[in-house]
Write a structure and sequence with these properties.
Layout: E1 2-7, H1 13-23, E2 26-27, E3 32-38, E4 43-48, E5 51-56, H2 59-74, E6 80-83, E7 89-95, H3 104-117, E8 121-125, H4 147-159, E9 163-167, H5 175-178, E10 187-189, E11 192-193, H6 198-212, E12 219-221, H7 234-239, H8 244-261, E13 265-269, H9 271-276, H10 292-297, E14 303-307, H11 314-325, E15 332-336, H12 347-364, E16 368-373, H13 387-396, H14 404-415, H15 419-424, H16 442-448, H17 465-482, H18 487-503, H19 506-515, H20 519-551, H21 557-582, H22 590-593, H23 615-619
Parallel strand pairs: 1-2, 1-3, 3-5, 7-8, 7-16, 8-9, 12-13, 13-14, 14-15, 15-16
Antiparallel strand pairs: 4-5, 4-6, 10-11
Length: 624
């Protein structure tokens, strides 16, 4: 397809060039004439005689409109499109602090996809994964970004009408930085900075300078969430007890003063104010009361971010938006795509909560929103699996009500693969017809759990887990073969499914044979199944490694490698233990004598599916 784009495109030429390859068109003076009009209001695309007109207000609207134009022409549909932006700011926050640190090239690829979707803001959540001059231990061996890398990404984003905003922490969530002895004087607790300490504020000034320097934006996210033990560590020993409200406000004011000195405009997570006002310490506690004098002391100009990924009804979001407004400023909303539980994104839950949350935001007239892609517990999932959710978020940004059939069409055009293929990834964790709103993550714990002392065996007794994974292995293999561009996603899913088709219930089979005294069955497992399982686990590791290194910097993969190595070592030890028993060198296997208890203090409710995302809790009941 050739397009001759003229009109109000000054400053957009570089972005046009970047997106021409992504969208599959050529810029050619002999092509279809497209006249761009910069004006106030909605996005308007229509055809008048032989010319196409594309009306837009902001750069990001032009790039979204360009994508819609090419999509419509490709599908040979009539050009008559009007979209009304529902938000002033609509963006994405990528977690690059849980070992998986996106390569700059991955960031650029995501920026192109965001521009076509019409998402205008990107944050990289970096606890310690950015350089601070003179602080070599900050982000040491963690894949931290250099100034030049971030500056290059910001320049790239600017060409596409996207603002990059630094997103850091200035109070809690700093365990990876504070673990080094050189940082010991700055610790309150293992992950919280020591407040009311001059060295701390000197360090925070260095953080703010380093984090903001590569970016054009003067906005900065200063974090400050979930500092539950604030004032209860070294602070308590050095200064005595002080109400956390007072510590929090004083610290926030000091950080805000530094930000103002550097001409930065800070925003922060709001949960600590609500938690400190709650009798239970909960963020979403309806009984939470923030004293008026405390609300009045929140520094003017510090924007509060209301984050919520947990409610399915619009009314709750509306109530919490209003409560945030009662603190004296207009909040920013942050949703979540449920990328953080396993090897796949939980689309059902993410879609349900995003629909409710953004409908409430639009109803309440909120003008800024972004969506978070967290990667808890080592970053085992891949950023690209979130694409369906990003498209949903974007469609909410340009329509009062989302048409999910159009969402499907748009996803397929933008990504060159069927919508169902990506949605099927959720089947790694959706066994036995579990409903779309769930959060259970069996793929994670069934892969990592010990084959001999499996803490989750009770959940797979008499369940067709093997056949489930066999079926999806075939599906994912087909997706991988038919979509070379996305094979790095689906080859891993296929290899993981193949491994789980053998491993998911192998512990149950071992226990059953042992209790029946069936040494022949145990011998078959030890001589046939377990060696085959080692091969499948290693094939999964290799596919996972290829996926990781395509998307991320190398740092952090060592953790996942060690996890795979742990599984393989335990499979090998299981083979040895069974052989010792089969050949009569031991009379019993105590690991198999222990009664299998529910992981949580309740009986299984007829389903394999529970939720446990922490690797250290999955692999052993012992000290880890």
């Amino acid at each position: 397809m050739r397009l001759n784009i003229i009109g109000d495109i000054y400053g957009l030429e570089d972005g046009l060039s970047l997106l021409s390859q992504e969208l599959g068109f050529e810029i050619d003076s002999r092509g279809i004439p497209v006249i761009a009009h910069r004006r106030t209001g909605n996005i308007r695309i229509c055809k008048e005689e032989e010319e196409i007109h594309l009306g837009f207000e902001r750069d990001i609207h032009f790039f979204r409109g360009l994508g819609l134009l090419v999509e419509t022409l490709s599908n040979e549909k009539d050009l008559d499109i009007t979209e009304t932006p529902q938000f002033h700011t609509l963006g994405v926050m990528f977690d690059v602090s849980r070992n998986a640190v996106m390569k700059p090239q991955t960031i650029k690829d995501m920026l192109k996809k965001m521009a076509i979707m019409g998402l205008d803001t990107m944050m990289l959540y970096a606890e310690d994964t950015y350089e601070i001059p003179g602080k070599p231990y900050f982000g040491y061996m963690r894949g931290r970004y250099t100034y030049d890398e971030l500056k290059e990404c910001d320049d790239y984003a600017a060409k596409l009408g996207i603002e990059m905003i630094p997103c850091i922490q200035t109070l809690g969530h700093l365990a990876q930085a504070l673990k080094w002895e050189v940082m010991k004087e700055l610790r309150d607790t293992d992950d919280i900075l020591l407040a009311e300490n001059e060295e701390t504020y000197e360090f925070i000034e260095e953080m703010l300078k380093a984090a903001s320097a590569p970016f054009r934006s003067k906005r900065i996210h200063i974090g400050m969430d979930e500092a539950h033990m604030l004032g209860l560590g070294n602070y308590l020993q050095k200064k005595g007890y002080k109400p956390r409200f007072e510590i929090m406000l004083e610290h926030l004011n000091r950080v805000n003063e530094i930000a103002k000195k550097l001409e930065l405009k800070p925003m922060m997570w709001s949960d600590m104010f609500f938690r400190l006002g709650s009798p239970t310490g909960g963020y979403y506690d309806l009984n939470s009361t923030i004293p008026q004098d405390v609300a009045e002391k929140i520094p003017e100009g510090v924007e509060l971010i209301y984050w919520d990924y947990y409610h399915s009804g619009e009314d709750f979001y509306k109530e919490w938006i209003r409560r945030h407004r009662s603190l004296g400023s207009e909040p920013i909303f942050a949703g979540g795509l449920w990328t953080w539980t396993s090897f796949c994104t939980r689309y059902g839950r993410a879609f349900k909560y995003t629909d409710a949350a953004l409908s409430a935001c639009k109803s309440e007239g909120l003008k800024e929103a972004f969506v978070t892609l967290w990667y808890d517990d080592g970053g085992e999932n891949n950023y690209y699996t979130a694409l369906p959710g990003l498209h949903l978020f974007a469609e909410h940004g340009y329509h009062n009500q989302v048409d999910h059939s159009k969402l499907r069409e748009r996803f397929e055009f933008c990504n060159g693969i069927s919508y169902e293929a990506f949605k099927d990834l959720e089947s790694l964790d959706m066994i036995l017809g579990e409903d779309d709103g769930g959060i259970a993550n069996p793929a994670k714990y069934l892969l990592w759990q010990d084959p001999l002392v499996g803490l989750f065996d009770i959940y797979v007794q008499k369940k067709p887990v093997s056949s489930h994974y066999m079926m999806f292995e075939k599906k994912f293999q087909e997706y991988s073969l038919n979509n070379p561009k996305w094979s790095f996603i689906f080859d891993f899913a296929a290899k993981l499914s193949r491994a789980l088709s053998l491993k998911a219930d192998i512990g149950v089979r071992i226990i059953d044979a042992y209790k029946r005294g069936d040494r022949d069955a145990l011998k078959s497992i030890s001589e046939d199944d377990l060696p085959e399982l080692l091969k499948r686990i290693n094939a999964t590791r290799v596919a996972h490694r290829q996926q990781w290194f395509k998307t991320n910097k190398p740092f952090g993969w060592e953790v996942i490698d060690i996890r795979y190595g742990g599984v393989c070592a335990r499979v090998e030890s299981t083979t040895w233990r069974l052989t010792e028993y089969i050949e009569g060198r031991i009379d019993s296997i105590p690991e198999l004598e222990e009664e299998r208890l529910p992981f949580y203090d309740e009986k299984p409710k007829g389903s394999v599916l529970i939720f446990q995302k922490r690797y250290r809790r999955i692999v052993t009941a012992g000290l880890f």
